[in-house]
Amino acid sequence: MGNSTIASELGERPRWLLVAALLAGNVALALGPWAVRLADSGPVAAGFWRLFLALPFLALMARANGERLVGIARPTFILVLVAGAVFALDLASWHIGIEATRLGNATLFGNSGSLVLMIWGFVMWRRLPRSLEWLAIVSALTGAAILMGTSLQISGETLVGDLFCLLAGLFYAGYLLILQNARTGLGSWSLLTWSSLAGAPILLGIALLRGEPIWPSDWTPLISLFVLSQLVGQGLLVYCLKHFAPLVIGLALLTQPAVAALTGWFAFGEAIGAIDVLGMVLLGAALVLARGSKANPANLGPEE
To answer: 188-226: b or e for each residue (b if 16 or more CB lie within 10 Å)?
Structure first.
């Protein structure tokens, strides 16, 4: 009976369809920085609208999946709100970086949380990296040095953009570590709803402090941003996380910098040379190895 049920479920969800959903989610997330660039609000304000506009849809998805939005244990609820605040800092840093550096760089550095979590795992478990983990660290440092060196050759502002995106990766790792225990007792959609609700006012406050324009004259980029990043991208990855190992999720992640780099070249004329490709390959390979490392203390949630 149990085997026939499993076979039936697998028949309803062909493997190729799951792979397509995983790739589609990564492509949707990779197009998010394009929308940030096109928005005529400020970059941090765009992050506010991304979360605020998505809230009712996230809540509906939580209810549709039978997840609790109320009656959450107080310690868990506090953790989720703190995580939402850290996620807001992640988005603020990342969106500022997107405005200042190339889209491919922004996507790679923004996803550096995989490496941070792996290194955190070494500290927590009090052990040194093993062969593939050393390879991930060396590849990451080499790839990052190449990409940042190229950015510095373009302008100092581009290098600052890389650093903001790297800072975003640190915040994202913190967000996931805070939620490590909360995620076991709270559904993914409920978690996204409350963390978005906590993060939205913080992003609005940062945007106002920076003197950014808040209300856009053209809503199209912002609607595209919240649909692609917060609903389609994160939604598909939430669905796919339970069907794939972290290493497979990491491999699929490599579509993001490729799509972002192509978008940057097509829409903004951001040239990519052979040395840039080498840097992206090295850093991307490091992210994949970090995803598959047993030192990673948590399976990463949806990317930014």
So the answer is: bbbbbbbbbbbbbebbbebbeeeebeeebeeeebbebbb
